[in-house]
Please model this.
Amino acid sequence: MINDELWSAIGEPIRRQVIDRLLENGTGTASSLSGGLPVTRQAVSKHLVVLERAGLVSSTTVGRERIYQPDEAQLARAAAQLAAVGSSWDGRLRRIARIAEDVERAGQQK
Model:
């Protein structure tokens, strides 16, 4: 079953970049993750809230900062869901191709 909140969260390119950075570094703050991104630290912070709500990252508060880390188990579930969706669509596209071929053959026989 597809989790719409999860896919909405990772459907945004900046959020995927944030996840990539967290996977590379293990942890990060909104400030450390915003370096080199085309958005502000405040925007990254908002993206992190969405990712946390979807369960893709978790955070702990250390002093005045929130330290984020990827939830690798949830990311693995997301990858499995994506693979299942891809497989399902592959099957649908094969059926559509067969129907199109049948229609084309029927048109040629007339």
Notes: The domain at 4-109 is CATH 1.10.10.10 (Arc Repressor Mutant, subunit A). The chain is about 70% helix and 10% strand. Helices lie at 4-10, 13-25, 30-34, 41-53, 72-109.
